[in-house]
Amino acid sequence: MAFRTGISRRMMMRSGFGLRSMSSWWGSVEPAAKDPILGVTEAFLADPSPDKVNVGVGAYRDDNGKPVVLECVREAERRIAGKLNMEYLPMGGSVNMVEETLKLAYGENSEFIKDKRIAAVQALSGTGACRLFADFQKRFRPDSQIYIPVPTWANHHNIWRDAQVPQRTFHYYHPETKGLDFASLMDDVKNAPNGSFFLLHACAHNPTGVDPSEEQWKEISYQFKVKGHFAFFDMAYQGFASGDPERDAKSIKIFLEDGHLIGIAQSYAKNMGLYGQRVGCLSLLCEDEKQAVAVKSQLQQIARPMYSNPPVQGALIVSTILGDPELKKLWLKEVKVMADRIIGMRTALRENLEKLGSPLSWEHITNQIGMFCYSGLTPEQVDRMTNEFHIYMTRNGRISMAGITTGNVSYLANAIHEVSKSA
Ligand code: PLA
What we know:
Blueprint: H1 2-15, H2 17-24, H3 38-46, E1 53-54, H4 71-80, H5 95-106, H6 111-114, E2 118-123, H7 125-140, E3 146-150, H8 154-162, E4 167-171, E5 173-174, E6 179-180, H9 182-191, E7 197-201, H10 214-227, E8 230-235, H11 245-248, H12 250-257, E9 263-267, E10 280-285, H13 289-307, H14 313-322, H15 325-355, H16 363-367, E11 372-374, H17 379-389, E12 391-392, E13 398-400, H18 409-420
The chain binds ligand PLA.
């Protein structure tokens, strides 16, 4: 055997066959383009400069620039330590976690929860929830499209692309007013074919930090009703807009009151700081319990060949916190602390820019809400921020407010002033 193998290998090498076949398997694979958000973190980590600042990815930092583990999470970890077995969760994930998560979105005493009209599964954080929905949409509404706001979180495009759902866009942000382009948004809603699928950010729109007002949400919901559109809410920042998760679910409440059958992607990455635990939820409100049972079973069937069932640790942390009134209170307090620190940094950044005598208006920094400031810096100006000042941010001009601290805010303001003053 050894002899024969040796000969054949020698022969193969001489003929060049082995080398060619080994390299040709993946010979056509080109390096992928860098991710516009996570690629920024990679570049930041590779920069040896002591001055460097990362305001790219939306990950909360304390005022010393350090990642934060919430006290409610630490306490939940202490309570579950040693008690957790490592068994598989069901395909649909933790039933307790899902139930608590639905209360946050649909309301503590929601009739839809009581009537079991919501098909819901634990998902791999917000991204996984969006992807599961996109795959479900493709499977059961194969001819549908998805309307996505301009701009949006870059990964939305990848998610629906990989699910092979054709994408359309709708107007959202007005670059001149740095606010919502409500008139064009409504035109797009009216002009879309009846029964279209729309992706909406429930609160703290990423990347613009611009949300519709309550009145505008009511008008959007009304027009969706007229047109028979489907609203899919991505709610990745519940609590980060106002500091109060319940208030941040207002858009959803408005749609529910108008009788829409909506879908929601929820994530605990930001509001519980569980980024790497990958815990979230996908839910679809159905006409009745029977439909909800069928839809849930199909969602599970999509999950099964992809990842079988979701991870257990994060789900248990969430259900421990939300299932205990004291821990939940602590969580709500900590969400508010995070949101307030960001609001404080908005004021500080704007004041610093104004003190430097910037001729431009920076009012939008304090008008916008949530984790991001859509600064208005051009891609070329962002390149200067990075190359000259070692400040890392996405090229669309988005600044993660959560990465700003009292220690770096004046440095950041100075850099923004330097790259924008001659514009
Ligand atoms: N939806 C929106 C609108 C988001 O901004 C993000 C995360 C997610 C979903 C997904 O989050 P999750 O899967 O971690 O729950 N956006 C980040 C990170 C914070 C990222 O790009 O993945 C961002 O910096 O935009």
